[in-house]
Design brief:
single chain, 13 strands, about 190 residues
Length: about 190
């Protein structure tokens, strides 16, 4: 994420009109538009590994896996964003007119980079918690083996940090799991 190009405040309608006509993606937060920056090779490998694993795990399930290009509206929080990977389960709530914006994800995944880590851990996480549908939030490091897994239970949110390649993230709400060895395939080998 980069700083807004102008200090001007945009309405949601202005943002959506600009976004739908642009070749570049941007996120919206409280009236500011932030251009999305390109991703590294490792970032891309991690996103594809997670999306492929979840898609395979959910084959035959009514839940759907998406990556990178699907906008999420965090209702009434002032945030419109593009998570790296997401899973949505029925009943899936779409923007009715354009079908290009999801309102009720069950799982959100953000792959951390130096420029977005604080934003993903703090501002985005605070707003994502307002989504009643959200059951799992994963923050995935790309420079080391580490996933912070936030999961919702009847008492609230729990967090666990997994940091070994033989660890497995249990995504109980969707009946799937992610092994860290699968998540970091072709990534960790390149760092040694």
């Amino acid at each position: 994420m980069t700083l807004p190009a102008t200090p001007r405040s945009f309405s949601v309608d202005e943002y959506l009109m600009l976004e739908r006509s642009s070749r570049e993606k941007s996120e919206y937060l409280d009236g500011a538009i932030y251009a999305m920056t390109g991703a590294s090779r490792d970032h891309n490998h991690i996103v594809l590994n997670i999306a492929a694993t979840l898609r395979g795990a959910l084959r035959g399930s009514p839940c759907e896996t998406f990556s990178n290009d699907l906008r999420v509206k965090v209702a009434d929080s002032g945030l419109y964003t593009y998570p790296d990977v997401l899973v949505a389960c029925p009943p899936i709530s779409w923007d009715r007119e354009h079908m290009d914006m999801l309102e009720n994800p069950s799982v959100l995944v953000e792959v951390l980079s130096p420029s977005t880590e604080l934003y993903d851990r703090n501002e985005k996480w605070a707003r994502y918690q307002q989504l009643p549908s959200l059951q799992h939030y994963l923050l995935v490091a790309q420079n080391r083996v580490q996933i912070d897994h936030y999961s919702r239970d009847p008492q609230g949110w729990r967090v666990e940090t997994l940091s070994k390649l033989d660890d497995v993230v249990q995504l109980q709400a969707i009946g799937a799991e992610l092994s860290l060895s699968d998540v970091y395939e072709r990534v960790i080998d390149n760092q040694t």
